[in-house]
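Question (not urgent): is this output format expected?
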Amino acid sequence: MKLRVVMAFVIVLAFFNNASGMNVEFADSAWDGINVPEGQQCQKFGGNNPSTPGWIVTGIPVGSDTILLEYSDRDSKKMDKGGHGRMSFTLDPTADRVEIPSIPGHTFEIPSAFTIIEAHRGPGWDKAGAYMPPCSGGKGHAYYVTIKALKKGKITAETVKAMGTY
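Got this back:
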């Protein structure tokens, strides 16, 4: 009986988390969600001008005014749950689709449509900045981004997108 209740709760939660139909795709075909593209790892491990992927977000709930991006390493407790950087992107509240540009890693100089919520948590590991690109040294860590649409600070939709392993 307990298992049925737990399963029902998980199904309902999954439905409501994606009820808006918000969808996120890579804007750059170099990113496939399986492997981090060559050169997009941190500078410590040979990255060449690494940056976040650009994103195409569709199905944004009406009235949402912000997209929150939380970059993470699933295999590092310190760098999970937004440890690679958390930033917001300002939206036109009438938009149901937006293309979010990439931002460079290892810097605090990011486009004006973005606001840094939390810089990455590993400035002693590699160069400080708003976003730290994948930086496990090729140990097969899984990188992902949690993307939340917000309306006046309240979550209207949320999804998770795998960025790939490195």
